[in-house]
Amino acid sequence: MKEAVIKSVTRILDNYLEVTHHRKTPERYTILRAIYANKGHFTLDELKEQLAEKYDFPVSRATLYNTLNLFMEIRLVMRHRLQGSTKYEAYYGNSNHCHQICTECGKVTEIASPEIVSVIESIHLKRFRKDGFNLYVYGVCSTCQSKLTRKRRSERKSKTE
């Protein structure tokens, strides 16, 4: 499945670069492959590190930033600004989905919710064509809930002593 997706996004990039008369650089294709080999969300620095370590293909932050902007323009990558940080993710074949975000630790997890997808897809929006959606649900993850509960218990215990 992954290889089929990578072939599809490579074709989309090829077509876009040809139509817009942009150069087909090895950097663009290596970055695209790294993004679609990635699982989940990543920062610019994480992608830079992955390219250097796994692909032995170091690139500058400027090249990464410009390439990610190009990929966002053709909807191959989605940018998320979450809890004070910017994260990216592969977007092709992943346009309708939900995220849960812990307000304590900042952990982002994708959640599968066919009910939400169905409701949003069935909504008729006047004079607007939907291409996809991202839903963000904020709360506290179970790990942080446990930490907060332990902290409260220890604070109560120290007050009674």
Structure report:
A 3-stranded mixed sheet has the order 4-3-5, covered by helices on one side. A hairpin with a 2-residue loop joins β1 and β2. The protein is flat, with a radius of gyration of 20 Å. It has 161 residues and is of the alpha+beta class. It has 6 helices and 5 strands, in the order ααααββββαβα. The protein has helices at residues 2-20, 26-37, 44-53, 61-73, 114-122, 142-160; strands at residues 77-82, 85-90, 96-102, 108-111, 133-139.
Keywords, separated by commas or semicolons:
51% helix, 3-stranded mixed sheet, 6 helices, 161 residues, alpha+beta, 5 strands
Main-sheet strand order equals 4-3-5
Could you describe the largest sheet, including whether it forms a barrel? 3 strands, mixed
Helix/strand order? HHHHEEEEHEH
Q: Which structural class do the helices and strands define?
A: alpha+beta
User: Approximately what portion of the residues adopt beta-strand conformation?
Assistant: 15-25%
In helices, the fraction of residues equals 40-55%
Number of strands: 5
Low-confidence stretches: none
